[in-house]
Predict the 3D structure of the following.
Amino acid sequence: MPVSMTLRELYDRIREVLPEVDARYVLNKRAGVTAADLIVAPDSGVPEGAVGLVMRDLERFQTGEPLSRIYEERAFWGMDFVLSPATLDPRIDTEVLIEAVLQRFKDRSPLRILDLGTGSGCILVTLLSLFPQAYGVGVDLSPAALQIARSNAQRHGVDARAGFVCADWGGALEGLFDLVVSNPPYIESDVILDLDENVRKFDPILALDGGQDGLQAYKRIFSDLNRLLDEGGFCFLEIGFDQEEKLTRLIKESRFLLKSVHADSAGHPRVVEIFSAK
Ligand SMILES: C[S@@+](CC[C@H](N)C(=O)[O-])C[C@H]1O[C@@H](n2cnc3c(N)ncnc32)[C@H](O)[C@@H]1O
C-alpha cells in the first residue's frame, strides 16, 4: 500500500483550507480516520489513494463547491441526509419549521403529514422520526429528488410510514391531512441571477424559482390546502426573510387563519403557521 503522507501532515494540509471540524470530517470521509486516530497515531501513513481524493476535494472546495455537494450529504436536525444534484441542500433555517411543529404538537402527535416539495425528504423524515405514530406523504415534481427522499426515509427507518408521490404540488392527492408542511421555491425569478454562486450553481432551479412575484408555489399550495387540510389541522410554510407581509395577505384572502409567525436565529420571519378552523 503506497503511503505518501502521515496523518498529521495530511490534516495540516487540509487545515490550510478548512476549519477544524470540517478538516476532521474530510479526513474521516476519505481516509476513515477519526479524531482519536489523529491523537493516538499522528505519524501513521495515509494510503496514496486517499491523499489523492482529499487533494481533489480541496480543489473542488476552493473553486466554490460546498462540502455538502462534494460528499452528497448534509446533517439536518442532527440526522444525516443523502443529497443529489436534484435536491436542495437543506438549510439550517428550515429547522425553525421543525421547532414550530414541535411547539404546536407538544401534547399530541399529528397522524397524517403531507410535505409538499419534499426534496431530500429532510422535513418529512425528521417529522416521522419525531412522531412515531404518524404516517406521511412527500410530494415532489422531480422523480430524481423523490428517489433520494425514499432512500433517506429508509436510512432513518421511517420508510414503512412514508409514501412518495411525483406530482405538481397537491393536485394529484386525495384525503385529509392534519399537518401540512412545505418549504416551497420562493425566490423571485429575477433575483435568482444575483444569488450567491454556491446557491445558483449547485441547487436545482426547480427548488428555488418562485416565479416573478416569488409567490407562485404558495398560491398553488393554498388552493390545494382547501381540499387537503383537515378542519382543526395546521400548515407550516417556510417563507423568504422579506415575505411576511405578502404571505399574511395571501392567508387573509384564504379561508385559513394565521396562527403565528416563527423567526429564525437572525430574527427574520421564517415560518408561517396556519390554522384551519373548524
Ligand atoms: C426549496 S426546495 C425544498 C426541499 C426540501 N423540502 C427542503 O426543505 O430542503 C422546494 C422543492 O419543491 C419542489 N417543487 C418545485 N416545484 C414543484 C411542483 N410544482 N410540485 C411539487 N414539487 C415541486 C422542488 O423540486 C424542491 O424539491
User: Anything to note?
Assistant: Residues 88, 90, 94, 117-120, 122-123, 139-142, 145, 168-169, 183-185, 206-207 surround S-adenosylmethionine (CB under 6 Å).
